[in-house]
């Protein structure tokens, strides 16, 4: 039995208390985030955040499954959503379903997310009808970086605005249980949130959304580079650098390990041979 949040719980948050969502890639971090989060997203951002790739385009099914399994092991109350990687759902409905089913079977996650251009309405409906809850992802779609020529906010021109609204409508009408809106101006996020029936989850998309998501490593200050929309709630990169530099100095000065961290020869008990 699971006490995890379900798609019903997430849908019920429409226009209610904002949904708290964070990315997670491994078991110990998932365990720290789980008590506070409604949704843990195993984002394909893991390609950049933990594997050092230049974009999310190189992320594979195997990477998503391995990290999805770890996050499931580390959590027990948040809904876990796993991103479908570039190339795993765009071709047609059948390959989208086979890959989504594989992710769900091998990780035990409750839902998948796809970067949903308007073309993807077919895939979303196909998956939902067959038992795969789908989270959409519109606006700035990182998997399209090679078409867009970089990561840029969307919907700041009228043409782009119409396109983002069309993406939102398509995902909502096709049955997405929630939609991530990335990198759009506040008025557009507000208009979409008012129009669609499912909750919207913003990243760089203002407080007008029904929930928020951040890349956990960004909000914990594990990178020097942080985009405008990130608030750093901690400065872990400084904490880690300070800790590692203290360790290195101690090792070089033979101050670590000390007596407390060292095993001594155990005297055998008298009756023991
Ligand atoms: O991959 C990711 O982390 C994401 C979120 C930032 C929405 O898609
Ligand atoms: Na993603």
What key attributes describe this structure?
single chain, 273 residues, alpha/beta, TIM Barrel, eight-stranded parallel barrel, 13% strand, binds 3-methyl-2-oxobutanoic acid, binds sodium ion
Question: What does this molecule look like?
Answer:
This protein has 273 residues and is an alpha/beta fold. The protein has a single domain (7-235), classed as Phosphoenolpyruvate-binding domains (TIM Barrel). The chain is built from eleven helices and eight strands. An eight-stranded parallel β-barrel has the order 1-2-3-4-5-6-7-8, surrounded by five helices. Strand 3 (79-83), helix 5 and strand 4 (111-113) form a beta-alpha-beta unit. Sodium ion is lined by residues 43-45, 83, 142. Residues 43-45, 83, 142 line the site of sodium ion. It is an enzyme of class 2 (transferase). GO terms for molecular function: 3-methyl-2-oxobutanoate hydroxymethyltransferase activity; magnesium ion binding; methyltransferase activity. Belongs to the PanB family. Mg(2+) binds at residues 44, 83, 115.
Explain the layout of strands and helices.
Layout: H1 7-11, E1 19-23, H2 27-33, E2 39-42, H3 46-49, H4 61-74, E3 79-83, H5 93-107, E4 111-113, H6 121-129, E5 134-139, H7 145-148, H8 158-174, E6 178-182, H9 186-195, E7 200-203, E8 211-214, H10 216-219, H11 236-252
Parallel strand pairs: 1-2, 1-8, 2-3, 3-4, 4-5, 5-6, 6-7, 7-8
Helix pairs in contact: 2-4, 4-5, 5-6, 6-8, 8-9
The structure holds 3-methyl-2-oxobutanoic acid and sodium ion.
Sodium ion binds next to loops.
């Amino acid at each position: 039995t699971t006490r995890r949040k379900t798609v019903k719980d997430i849908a019920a948050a429409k226009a209610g208390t904002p949904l708290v969502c964070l990315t997670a890639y491994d078991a110990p971090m998932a365990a720290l985030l789980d008590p506070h989060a409604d949704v843990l997203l195993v984002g394909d951002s893991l390609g950049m955040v933990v594997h050092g790739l230049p974009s999310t385009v190189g992320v594979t099914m195997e990477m998503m499954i391995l990290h999805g399994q770890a996050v499931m092991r580390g959590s027990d109350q948040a809904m876990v959503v796993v991103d479908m990687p570039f190339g795993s759902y765009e071709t047609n409905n059948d390959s989208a379903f086979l890959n989504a089913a594989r992710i769900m079977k091998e990780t035990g996650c409750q839902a998948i997310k796809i970067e949903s251009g308007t073309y993807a309405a077919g895939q979303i409906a196909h998956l939902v009808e067959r038992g795969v809850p789908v989270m959409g992802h519109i606006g700035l779609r990182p998997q399209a970086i090679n078409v867009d020529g970089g990561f840029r906010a969307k919907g700041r021109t009228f043409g782009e605005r119409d396109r983002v609204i069309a993406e939102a409508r398509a995902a909502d009408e096709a049955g997405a249980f929630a939609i991530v809106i990335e990198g759009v101006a506040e008025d557009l996020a507000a208009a979409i949130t008012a129009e669609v029936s499912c909750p919207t989850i913003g990243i760089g998309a203002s407080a007008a959304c029904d929930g928020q998501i951040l890349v956990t490593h960004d909000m914990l200050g594990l990178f020097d580079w942080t985009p405008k929309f990130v608030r750093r709630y901690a400065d872990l990169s400084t904490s880690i650098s300070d800790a590692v530099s203290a360790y290195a100095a101690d090792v070089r000065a033979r101050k670590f390990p000390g007596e407390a961290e060292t095993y001594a020869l155990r005297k055998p008990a008298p009756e023991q041979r």
